[in-house]
Amino acid sequence: LWREKRGETQPEDLSANLVVQLGTITEDLNRRWYERQSGFAVTSVQKRARHPAISWMAATLDGLVEDLQAVFEAKFMLPWSFSEEAAAEKHMAQLQHNMWVTSTNKAILSIITGGGKWLELTIQADPLYQHLLLIAEKKFWSCVASGEPPRLFHLEPPKPRLEAVRIMDMSGSNAWAEWSNAYVRTRTAHQEHECAKSELKKLVPEDAREAAGHGLRARRSKSGAISFEQIEASHA
Questions:
Q1: Is the pTM here over 0.70, yes or no?
Q2: Residues ≥6 apart with Cβ < 8 Å to 158
Q3: C-alpha pair distances (Å), 98 with each of 47, 84, 132
Q4: What is the per-residue pLDDT across 188-223, written as a single tens digit (0 to 9) for each?
Q5: Helix-strand-coil percent breakdown of the chain, rounded to 5?
Q6: At 215, is the secondary structure helix, strand, or coil?
Q7: Domain 2-146, what fold?
Q8: Which of 36, 68, 164, 216 is paired with 105 by a 20 to 30 Å CA distance?
Q9: Which of 57, 105, 95 shows the shortest CA–CA distance to 74?
Q10: 133 pLDDT exceeds 70?
Q11: What pLDDT, on a 0 to 100 scale, did the predictor assign at position 163?
């Protein structure tokens, strides 16, 4: 990319890259499908936007969802080993960059997979991620101007934060079945246990540092918190 921006080489020819071409061909369908499913219109399609204060910072937008004050990004992804977290992480730099350029605080990532599935991810602007991205972009453009080859920072970017919008059916999960049964089975005992602790604390005199009896000891910490421990009957 550095050599491309300096005019020393031509951009990579992606016309024979099937996945890239599928993304290009399905972009219009992706946008129309999002509009149909969400009820929101996508405007500013393929608009070239520039940052109002940083002259070299620009973005070509898939669109804007003005009702949500969000940038829109349409992607095609292969279904194998697909996960929402991986999709968000893969496109996070582009989304944060586009939000920074357009002064928006939200991005809509609309994804069509090769498995015939469509999903929508909402990504919030991340000030820390954008700050680190800006530092990297400034250094890159400095290298473009000076001719100095850019070097990687070797830093892990912040993990993407996804907005919780899905409703999951966990009936097919054996682990969920096991732990949900344990939760239901132990709930009454847990409630009784918490009630017992509350009542026992009321029985400990205010000036008592320790109280014991019937196989249980209560101790008051310097901060006033009371904790319990089971003891042998001979020590009670």
A1: no
A2: 126, 128, 129, 132
A3: 12, 20, 14
A4: 998 999 999 999 999 999 899 999 999 999 999 888
A5: 40, 20, 40
A6: coil
A7: Lambda Exonuclease; Chain A (3.90.320)
A8: 36
A9: 95
A10: yes
A11: 64
